[in-house]
Amino acid sequence: MAPGPYPPVELGDPVQATGTAGSVLLAHYLLGHNIGGERRETVYYRLMAQGHREGWRDYVTDPHVEFRAESA
Prior knowledge:
By secondary structure, the chain is mostly loops. The chain contains one helix and no strands. It is 8% helix and 0% strand. It has a domain of 29 residues. The longest helix has 6 residues.
């Protein structure tokens, strides 16, 4: 998957996540999703810290980039 300016991302095997009406699903921004026939409403919260603009490709492709210890 690499539409537009985005680098390729390995998606892995799909796992279905479902809920009953009124359920709330909190998901990581790298969670892949499919188009379905059911109605869904989405609210996105995007947080940004210093340095994100410069390293956005790393943040988009590696979910652990911010959690690695920096070497001295």
